[in-house]
Write a structure and sequence with these properties.
- There is one protein chain.
- By secondary structure, the chain is of the alpha/beta class.
- Helix content is 32%, strand content 21%.
- Strand 13 (276-279), helix 8 and strand 14 form a beta-alpha-beta unit.
- The protein is flat.
- The two termini are 20 Å apart.
- The model is unreliable at 1-6, 384-390 and 619-701 (pLDDT under 50).
């Protein structure tokens, strides 16, 4: 690379892979002296018009002087970046630092001229926007704070690149040229623009994988069996609507077909484009296949081949090389070691996976990092069994394998606006970028439910996964996900339970639950389960075992019409005798009553009811008939008894309808969720959203009622829906980060800069801690050292009686239960006696490190902490002080910055919160003052990322006001925040 002595070292950290607007990828890197030929070749492919826009005059070719200028950079005052695909330039950008007079300059000049050139064939792909983000980040790193650009008025595309970037800018017009000047400091608008572009690009990249127009299976064996041949058969049997090809270099020369599919020896031999390649060859042969795919213009890869990072260090390096190679050609990868992808849309019908059967079309998006868990989830959702009755369906399924490239974040970007997906279920074994995941999850959850179960919670992530280091325990990460609106569950059974309810029923308006049924015992179990889950159940209504279908209908109708009820759980057991209610009749009665009150969810707890679950789930026709006005067709009569689990009959689900398209959703009120049906040729889609039946309803307008085999499972799913519905209501008004007049942000910044000048990281002393916190209106009660009894007496006279005497040795600090604290010492005699007791019990003063502190008003002791985690970001934590809270892990967490509403809920979210609100007749603590303290700590860490850790312990919250009795602060250079930098894919 660059070797001339006047050059700075090559900045390898500026290299990055980016996703472009159309879903393809490009590599951005610095231009060096070795790029002369690439630059000339690139320029030759640019149109004369684009050259004119760049140089303001006809400029057919670059001179030798131009090539030297555009390839020789010092990477400080003169920088050039190129976007490359397949190793060749598709666009360039450069800046030159200038002084106030517009001539070349060096630092401390902080302005630079910037200019772009994009190859015509790649214009409109968002290349210039991506380059602008990266060159701006480079400029900020080199001390440049402002860009200037001169553009011809006719060059509207380039003007739009600058004006749409979201930076603060000024525009002027002089001598026929538009001059744009803009600050490079990120703004709320520039970040919003960046996130929106990231969303569009990543969503589009996943869409290209899930909805290809043509697919090639590379590695389809000549004989039946094997991974490649199985995937080929699965794609063919699913009725893929695009073009399908089989590729195997071992095919005989004259063989043109394989299982009725056009066959070729190489992807290069295919006459026509290939959008997606499924790679099922041994890992040693994958690089050659990727090269052929890249040269043929393949857009994406699903690599089911194993032998990568899951197999150890050698495989990990092989995986890195695979990703680098694919990105060189602008391709994205699902895998390696992937189970595959499925899209049940009638427009696609793609089963590029190892699943032999396509799941029923439905409204659930399913993501699994593990192939084995993916199989289990598909099976659970596909059939009636596994304890959750009623069939359901999948819109799209992605098994990411080692998720070397495409991850859950990318798929979330796609599902957020996917009109075919109403509920998202995810099985995650690791979260590679928790900060980004929580941001995307919050946005997704505001529009549609997102349910997550996380594996490997108590151990290391799978070998194949690249995971950022985090100091946060799993419980903290889970709490942060819940704050983002994620419905966190612990098992895949709960994942499916919650998904069924959210996909079939509207969200409850509150926690009030009516319980009715024909079994008193089952009703009482349901009642107890509701209390255990924090719901507010009404006393169960026992209809007795003699209840008829009409009795169930009447009772459910009354419960749903009661304004004091937000949801209904129906419990049912089989009845015998001449007047016993049949499954079909009971199902029809419940569905009919529920249809009259569609705003409230209904769940059924059943005990071996044979065909009831099937009847409840069965819709009245097999496909939406928008606008036809045709009456519903009755569901088939169920069989008298349920088949044995695992029998052939149990593996054949009853038919049900294809789900309707979704209606719009808002953060304020989610519309009813969808039902699901069997695969059959789709009916014509309605012409407009107004013609569609509401999501969550069968085509005849009735909700599909989920049924559960146990009260605990039904109630747990309902409780999760209640919590999510409350989060949706709160998210509509998230609150604000308050301003405080007494906060001295600039003074704190000066103090921090001075302290950090001593070293890269340090824990502040007591006086420095008090000074820094004081800039944010946080007063700390000073503690004076007492190395001797006389020093303790002098400290008490300085502070004023009554005082407290504390041992601050590490093994005694904050452990009042060990006896290292003496409180309410009213005079010197008591103080000296206590000093003698402590030294007699615990050792010499130099071991105890005793301090004297002024007594604070009695109250509830709490702990407030803030930490900057390199993966999750800044986190604020709160809990009561003491061993009991630590033992129970009773701590609540919120991402910083915290709003006033979030501070309010943070205080109330711990299990021991009643102690703050007058538990058992005690005086209520001043929670308003506590919330203000939390907000001030949040502001401190948010304003100054150099404050990497804050601990206030203990904080005594009295009936009026609070006292901070102990504090520690740690400063360090802040961890790099990739969410504030330019868009990049994870580095490999």
């Amino acid at each position: 690379m660059q070797t001339s002595p006047d050059r700075h070292e090559y900045p390898a950290h500026w290299e990055a892979d980016v996703v472009l607007r159309d879903g393809g990828t490009a590599r951005i890197r610095p231009i060096t002296v070795d790029d002369a030929e690439r630059l000339v070749s690139f320029y030759e492919q640019v149109s004369d018009e684009s050259k004119y826009y760049r140089f303001f005059a006809p400029y057919p070719r670059l001179s030798a002087k131009d090539v030297h200028r555009f390839t020789h950079h010092d990477f400080v005052d003169r920088v050039g970046l190129a976007a490359t695909v397949g190793g060749e330039f598709i666009a360039t950008v450069r800046y030159d630092r200038i002084g106030p007079d517009g001539t070349p300059a060096s630092g401390p000049a902080d302005e630079a001229e910037v200019a772009f050139l994009v190859q015509d064939a790649h214009q409109g792909r968002g290349v210039a926007s991506a380059l602008l983000e990266h060159i701006a980040a480079v400029a900020r790193e080199r001390g440049i704070r402002r860009f200037a650009a001169e553009v011809l008025p006719a060059n509207t595309k380039m003007i739009k690149v600058f004006t749409d970037a979201g930076y603060t800018q000024q525009r002027s017009f002089e001598d026929g040229v538009v001059r744009l000047e803009f600050d490079l400091e990120p703004t709320d608008r520039s970040l919003a623009v960046q996130y929106a572009r990231e969303h569009r690009a990543e969503a589009r990249s996943v869409q290209r994988l899930l909805a290809p127009g043509s697919v090639a299976v590379i590695g389809a064996g000549r004989t039946p069996g094997g991974v490649g041949r199985s995937v080929l058969g699965n794609i063919r049997d699913a009725g893929f609507t695009g073009r399908l090809y089989a590729v195997n270099r071992a095919l005989p020369e004259g063989q043109k077909e394989l299982d009725g599919v056009p066959a070729h020896r190489s992807v290069r031999d295919i006459d026509g484009p290939v959008d997606l390649a499924v790679v099922a060859v041994p890992a040693d042969h994958v690089p050659e296949v990727v090269t052929e795919c890249g040269e043929h213009g393949v857009q994406g890869l699903v690599v089911v081949s194993a032998g990568y990072a899951e197999s150890g260090p050698e495989g990990r390096e092989r995986q890195r090389a695979l990703v680098r190679q694919a990105r060189t050609h602008g391709m994205r990868i699902i895998g390696p070691n992937a189970f595959g992808i499925i899209n049940t849309s009638p427009r696609v019908r793609l089963n590029a996976s190892l699943a032999p059967e396509v799941p029923r079309p439905g409204r659930i998006g399913l993501f699994a990092q593990s192939g084995a868990i993916g199989i289990a989830l598909l099976s659970r959702l596909h059939r009636r069994g596994g304890g959750v009755t009623g069939v359901t369906g999948v819109s799209t399924f992605v098994s990411s394998g080692n998720r070397a490239d495409v991850s859950g974040n990318d798929v979330l970007q796609y599902w957020y606006e996917d009109p075919d997906t109403d509920v998202v279920l995810m099985y995650l074994e690791s979260i590679g970028n928790p900060r980004k995941f929580t941001r995307l999850a919050r946005r997704t959850a505001a529009a549609k439910p997102l349910v997550v179960v996380q594996g490997a919670r108590h151990g290391a992530a799978p070998q194949g996964h690249a995971v950022r280091a985090t100091r946060l325990p799993h419980a903290t990460v889970s709490a942060l996900l819940r704050q983002a609106g994620v419905i966190r569950v612990d098992t895949i059974t709960e994942l499916v339970d919650a998904g069924l309810l959210l996909a079939r029923q509207p969200l409850p308006a509150g926690p009030r639950v009516a319980i009715l049924g024909n079994s008193e015992s089952l009703g009482l179990l349901t009642y107890d389960a509701c209390l255990a889950e924090g719901l507010r159940p009404h006393p169960p209504q026992d209809l007795t075992t003699a209840a008829s279908a009409a009795d169930f209908h009447a009772a459910l109708s009354r419960a749903l019409s009661d304004d004091r009820c937000d949801a209904v759980v129906v419990t049912a057991i089989p009845s015998v005798g001449e007047g016993s209610v049949g499954d079909a009749a009971l199902a029809q009665a419940l569905r009919s009553a529920a249809a009259a009150a569609p705003a409230k969810p209904v769940l059924v707890v059943h005990v071996e009811l044979g065909g009831l679950a099937e009847a409840l789930s069965a819709a009245a026709s097999t496909a939406p008939q928008a606008g036809t006005g045709q009456p519903a067709q009755p569901a088939p009569e169920p069989t008298p008894s349920a088949p044995e689990p695992g029998s052939a009959a149990a593996q054949q689900p009853a038919p049900e309808p294809t789900p309707p398209p979704p209606a719009s959703a808002s953060a304020a009120a989610r519309p009813p969720a969808p039902g699901f049906g069997t695969a059959r040729p789709p009916a014509p889609e309605p012409a407009s959203a107004a013609a569609r039946p509401p999501v969550g309803e069968a085509p005849d307008g009735t909700h599909l009622i989920p049924a559960y085999p146990a009260a605990e499972r039904a109630v747990r799913a309902l409780a999760q829906a209640v919590g999510y519905a409350q989060w949706r209501r709160d998210a509509a008004d998230p609150g604000k980060v308050p301003e405080y007049d007494d906060i001295d942000e600039k003074g704190a910044a000066v103090l921090i800069d001075g302290l950090l000048a001593r070293g890269q990281g340090l824990t502040l002393g007591a006086d420095e801690t008090c000074d820094l916190l004081g800039h944010y209106g946080i007063e700390v009660h000073r503690a004076l050292p007492a190395p001797t009894a006389d020093a303790a007496a002098q400290a008490a006279r300085t502070l004023g009686y009554p005082v407290a005497l504390k041992a601050t040795a590490p093994h005694l600090r904050h452990r009042a239960d060990l006896g290292g604290v003496r409180l309410d010492l009213a005079d010197e005699e008591q103080l000296r006696r206590s000093y003698a007791e402590l030294t007699e019990l615990f050792g010499a003063p130099d071991e105890l490190r005793p301090v004297v502190q002024r007594m604070a008003p009695r109250g509830v002791d709490v702990v407030v902490r803030a930490v900057i985690d390199p993966a999750a970001g800044a986190v604020l934590s709160f809990g009561l002080a003491g061993a009991a809270s630590q033992l129970l892990g009773d701590t609540a967490h919120r991402l910083i910055p915290v709003t006033d509403r979030e501070a309010n809920t943070l205080v109330r979210s711990i299990r021991t919160a009643p102690l703050l609100f007058g538990w058992r007749g005690s005086a209520p603590a001043d929670t308003r003052a506590l919330e203000e303290l939390l907000l001030r700590v949040s502001r401190l860490v948010d304003d100054h990322p150099e404050v990497v850790a804050v601990t206030l312990e203990p904080v005594v919250v009295a009936a009026r006001g609070l006292s901070v009795l102990g504090a520690s602060v740690r400063l360090a250079p802040p961890p790099a925040r990739d969410d504030l930098g330019p868009r990049t894919l994870p580095a490999y």
